[in-house]
Design goal:
Strand content: 5-15%
Order of helices and strands: HHHHHEE
Strand order of the largest sheet: 1-2
Helix content: 40-55%
Structural class: mainly alpha
Largest sheet: 2 strands, antiparallel
Number of strands: 2
Radius of gyration: 33 Å
Distance between the termini: 90 Å
Length: 114
């Protein structure tokens, strides 16, 4: 009983892949295995940036009963009030989420109810 040489080579490739922890891909389809085997980049990127220190907001969340004053936040709010007085502020929000729109018709056109 003789076994064809190609069959023996295929079986050797399967065994070789099992021994060296590789994926057996005889058809050569793209599996993304090369990328999945690479080392993860997350830990090295995270270690590059310095650790986050406690911010003013963190302290006010930890101690809500403590009376604090954030100068940067006060300046920001003052600047927003100044812009709003000049008419450059953010537009008013919609009064209700469901609103006054009714969807009707085959193309679901929004008509205002009034």
């Amino acid at each position: 009983m003789s076994v064809p040489r190609s069959r023996i080579l295929d079986l050797m490739k399967v065994v070789q892949c099992r021994i060296f922890s590789m994926t057996f891909n005889p058809t050569g389809t793209r599996t993304g295995n090369k990328i999945l085997r690479q080392r993860l980049k997350g830990p090295s990127v995270a270690s590059y940036y310095p650790r986050r220190v406690a911010t003013f907001k963190d302290l006010t969340k930890l101690y809500p009963d403590l009376e604090t004053w954030d100068e940067k936040e006060e300046e920001r709010l003052e600047y927003l009030a100044y812009r709003k007085a000049r008419g450059k502020g953010a537009p008013k929000k919609k009064s209700s989420a469901g609103g006054n729109a009714i969807l009707q018709g085959p193309n679901l056109r929004a008509d205002l109810v009034g």
